[in-house]
Design goal:
The protein is an alpha+beta fold. Helices cover 21% and strands 37% of the residues.
């Protein structure tokens, strides 16, 4: 397969995004992670990637799983920082939080860079984050294209749904990433589907390194009196050290 076609397939398959609510499957149009219809497509360097046909689209959904050697607080320090997309997400060119919102309910803007002559794709995303003390954290990202004016030279993605589920395993974190995106434009679905596994393989391989960076260490998740996740902050010991 020509190298440039392979590159196009890799880049259009990725849609950056950020995070989920408890009733995620009622809010995000992604297949359930525990569905028995997922088909294993690749297993490499501790990352498993599955794909599944989507009933309302010619583009398949993917599910990726890996075990990160970092506690969930550290992983969330990465995932809740919009700019970290540039460090681990394949072809992420721009990623920034939009004004307003909270840790649990916010908006972000991101751009996936494409090789010439394909137009860069951009996304306006609604991010929801939820969890209970000691349990998993779930994050969804849903495209809300009308919330920000379109930008010349970029093609706005109108349909994208992403789920991240993080399960604490002591000093490790089990990550499941489920996503379905229509990349818009004239990119053929057969090409996107044939190369869909490359993006999560590349991205999660980098994420496993990023969670070890010193700047993401020393964080802790913050819960309210009912045990609901509400924020993340530097731990008191780290704050005193700073």
């Amino acid at each position: 397969m020509p190298a440039i076609i392979r590159t196009y397939g890799r880049l259009i398959a990725f849609m950056s995004a950020w995070l989920c609510a408890t009733n995620v499957f009622a809010q995000a149009d992604v297949p359930a992670p525990d569905s028995d219809e997922w088909v294993l497509r690749a297993e490499e360097n501790g990352v498993r990637v599955y794909t599944l046909a989507h009933e309302d689209s010619n583009f398949r959904a993917f599910k990726a799983e890996t075990l990160l050697h970092a506690p969930i607080d550290t992983v969330m320090a990465v995932m809740s920082t919009a700019e970290s997309c540039l460090e681990w997400a394949h072809a992420c060119k721009v990623s920034e939080s939009l004004p307003g919102g909270t840790f649990s309910d916010r908006y972000a803007y991101s751009v996936t860079g494409m090789p010439w002559p394909v137009t860069d794709r951009d996304y306006v995303l609604h991010l929801l984050t939820s969890g209970k003390r000691g349990g998993p954290v779930r994050m969804t990202m849903s495209a809300v294209p009308d919330r920000k004016p379109e930008v010349d030279g970029r093609l706005r993605v109108n349909h994208s749904e992403t789920l991240y589920e993080l399960v604490p395993r002591g000093e490790w974190t089990q990550l499941t990433w489920v996503q379905h995106t229509d990349p818009e434009g004239s990119l053929p679905s057969w090409l996107v589907n044939s190369l869909l596994v490359d993006i999560p393989l590349d991205s999660l391989g980098k994420l496993r390194e990023v969670v070890l960076l010193p700047k993401y260490q020393g964080y802790e998740l913050v819960y309210d009196a009912e045990g609901n996740l509400k924020d993340i902050r530097k731990s008191q010991n780290e704050s005193d050290r700073d």
